[in-house]
Amino acid sequence: MIFSGFKFQHIWHNIEHHFRGTNQFNYYFFNSFIFLIHSLSTAFIRKKPLNQFNIQAILNIIDFCFLLYLSYQFQKKINSEHLNRIQSLFNDYIEVFVGKAIIIPSNITTINSFQYHYHCFQKVIFQKKSYLKIINEHAFDHCHFNTIVIPSSVETISSKVFDSCYSLEKVEFEPHSKLMIIDSYAFHQTIITRIVIPSSVIQIFEGAFCECTRLTKIEFEDNSQLQIIGASAFRSTAFKSIEIPDNVVFIDINAFEFCRCLKTISFKNSNLQKICESTFACSGIETLTIPKNVCCLENAWCYRTFNLNDVNISPENEYFQKCDNKMIIGKKNNNKSVLYFAPRNINSITIPSFIKHIEECSFEFCKQLTKVNFEENSQLSIINSDAFSCTHLYDFTFPSSVLIIGNNAFNFCNFLIRVDFPDDSQLESIGCNAFYETPINRILIPSKVTRIQKFAFCNCYNLVSVDFKEDSNLKIIGFGAFENSSLNQIIIPPSVFIIKDCVFSRCYYLQIVEIPENSKLKKISKEMFDENSPLIVMIPVKFNIKNL
Length: 548
Known about the structure:
alpha/beta, elongated
């Protein structure tokens, strides 16, 4: 007789029903017996060779039958713990025989790439005293099991091993784990809720736990050897706090990006040296203490941290300090020169004269900030990208020392009506989207400005006047620079030799564009203007009309 999976299940349920409530010997003996029959029938009647697992399973079943028989013969009570273990193993074998589980033999050292991916089994069982060392990439991706216990022998979990296992909610590591590497996207998009990282782990690679949206708790074993947290390693997770192990020296870009629930990050005797770009971007972090060894805060490290109102500096840190109990000041070559951060709840601030750079996102989303002042003899030269983006500034007067206004520096400042430059302004460049969608109504471009980058004043719907100094050095007006503004006329400086497309697109009130006789402009494109504007372009006689 050949036992199909269905027939085996049917027989199993009949036996279970018949012996339920009888003595333990009968119940387990017959369970063991039916397993034995099924295995042997598969091997000999179907003429299928016994693999290593089947052989081991048969031997285990025989051992259990013998043990139970001896216990019955000598009227010895079976140890309840041992009995529970037998029952657990029986349940595992049932699931294996009906195709719901897989058992990895103990002598397997490597699981190959893609070996079990997209399988529908619900459980992975590693035999005791496993010698498994490496689980290769994609080995179990898109599988349907909900728990897994990783043997202590495993040293490497390769990239995307459990990627998109949407049912995986519990991951455990056997005690005394030798795991060293959790590779890129290893647990990406699983539903694990808690993870304890073994102390042996040295590196967590890019996206290892990315988009684990139910991961509410992460812990590191004592004496953690972790050194590197990779890019986006915990992106879009749900834990509220985390304590970074002491040996971590590097946290890569976007490591905690979009961790909306994250409130606090703790560093104790940290060896951390660098906080990279967007490490805490768009997180819910409220407080932070920069450890003593941190010597580098990369651009936009706190991008869109709406609730970050308190950043402290370790007293032992030699690279950063607090100024006026508000601003984080960086010391380059022992010279205080760079402003990195201000609390999000400030309403006004005075920038010290020694500040030369305002770094990216320093005041971004300071929703209560309405006034910025500068001390006399300001040395400020660069306002970097997004520095004052989305603030509530009403006006802004630039120090004469400013050379560069970075990309998006004041974009979406929805209350910014007035922008002033002193007569001796040294400004050379206005970056992309620098004043995008601000309500400024007029502006006088300083004489040393050589470039207005694309979309610099785009969607400035109140902008009715743009003037240039007589000695203007402007050379390039970028794509869409004044798009969708309310300009009614403009005189192009003679120094301009390039005007990109769409500069005056959607400028429905623009009537006159004047190009002087001594203009260096080589080409006028119809793509510069909106075809629905009542436009008059005043072109010098010497200008080649064919260039239109």
